[in-house]
Specification:
By secondary structure, the chain is of the alpha/beta class. The protein is 46% helix and 18% strand. The protein has 12 helices and 11 strands. It has a 6-stranded mixed sheet. It binds 5'-O-[(R)-(carboxyoxy)(hydroxy)phosphoryl]adenosine (KG4) and zinc ion. 5'-O-[(R)-(carboxyoxy)(hydroxy)phosphoryl]adenosine (KG4) is lined by residues 10, 139-141, 166-167, 169-170, 181-184, 187, 276-278, 280-281, 308-309.
Length: 359
């Protein structure tokens, strides 16, 4: 089975062709990603209207390239998948409408993929990780801890109540005048800074749930910076190091909590899987290894290019739908729902106790 996947939910215009073989494994035949970073850099973040227009300009070229690299004619496809949200609505409309046009013109099934579900299933494409596993998704738009029990069967243990982790890195970089995207720049500055110099808060730490809150940390950083302004190069490095250490500590605490909830509700995880651009951060990566080790499992980190947004994720998630003999109507539209079929896990451990007794 061969599926074309289209991704336009944020600032990557991407298309890929993925083949699912009879043994259930996936093979990426092509994977073309055009980043819009340069178009958003001067604004210090993604501008939705600019993103949507850039998708319109680039998408047909990107799809043509993906099909050429895969050496597949449209008529040989078994379906056309596009990310239908959650994401920036202008971009989603561009990708989904393009997928509809291709599916209609070539009489192929259309698959509207939930972007988060695509991230959740990537570890099965790259590492064939068996269910159930715990997913830590941390990007510029999302921060979630999910229990992945099967296709379409997800339990959400935690998420951010305000900023996503990547967004907090980006805003910190913007505040300190470092540029965009902020994550790699903050990490670089942090490497030569003193993480102990500024006592920044660790929001939500110690709570029984697995939720995140990053906006208070960001404000604390701003206040610390304002107090000592004008900033020297060393001040910037120390602020970055202190901020990154606070995020690392928060991730450690929140993931420990999420994995505790996972164990109570689902049992031992087969892996801790990370996804999203933030997982590229070495300090965060290190703490993920440690937390996974503590619960007797291992960290599975798909290659960076597949941790971030791309068409292969979407195509792979699409294969599952076509496998089940289903597809979507052409009337399908942008969906802001976090994840189809997802259940919010009870946040209190007491509420989870009955499942302990069943074990
Ligand atoms: O998954 P992704 O490529 O795109 C979406 O957000 O959809 O993630 C990008 C985010 C940005 O916020 C970026 O600053 C962050 O991931 N990021 C990092 C690092 N590399 C990328 N954050 C911290 N440390 C990094 N090394
Ligand atoms: Zn994403």
């Amino acid at each position: 089975m061969v599926i074309l996947g289209i991704e336009t939910t944020c600032d990557e215009t991407a298309a890929a062709v993925v083949k699912r073989t009879a043994d259930g494994r996936g093979r990426i035949l092509s994977d073309v990603v055009l980043s819009q970073i340069s178009e958003h850099a001067e604004f210090g973040g993604v501008v939705p209207e600019i993103a949507a227009r850039a998708h319109v300009e680039a998408l047909d070229h990107i799809i043509t390239k993906a099909m050429a690299e895969a050496q597949i004619p449209f008529r040989a496809l078994d379906g056309v998948a596009a990310a239908a949200g959650p994401g920036l609505i202008g971009g989603v409309i561009v990708g989904l409408t393009t997928a509809k046009a291709i599916a209609l013109a070539h009489d192929k099934p259309l698959i509207a993929v939930n972007h988060l579900e695509a991230h959740a299933l990537t570890a099965r494409l790259t590492d064939a990780v068996p269910f159930p596993y715990c997913l830590f998704l941390a990007s510029g738009g999302h921060t979630q801890i999910l229990g992945v029990r099967g296709v379409g069967d997800y339990l959400r243990f935690g998420g951010t109540v305000d900023d996503a982790i990547g967004e907090a890195f980006d805003k910190t970089a913007k505040l300190l005048g470092l540029g965009y995207p902020g994550g790699p720049l903050v990490e670089k500055e942090a490497a030569r800074g003193d993480a102990q110099r500024f006592a920044l808060p660790r929001p939500m730490s110690g709570r029984r749930d697995a939720d995140f809150s990053l906006s208070g940390l960001k404000t604390a950083l701003r206040l610390a910076a304002e107090k000592i302004a004008p900033l020297s190069d060393q001040d910037v490095a120390d602020l970055c190091a202190s901020f990154q250490q606070a995020v690392v500590d928060v991730v450690k605490d929140r993931l420990r909590s999420g994995l505790r909830m996972f164990r109570l509700r689902i049992g031992p995880p087969n892996a801790l899987v990370c996804a999203g651009g933030v997982a590229a951060n070495q300090a965060i990566r290190k703490v993920l290894h440690r937390v996974a080790f503590e619960v007797g499992t291992e960290l599975v980190a798909p290659p960076p290019a597949l941790c971030t947004d791309n068409g292969a994720l979407i195509a792979w998630a699409g294969t599952r739908v076509v496998m089940n003999g289903s597809s979507h109507q052409f009337s399908v539209s942008h969906s802001a729902r976090p994840l189809s079929g997802i259940m919010r896990a009870k946040t209190s451990l007491r509420a989870a106790l009955p499942s302990l007794f069943r074990l």
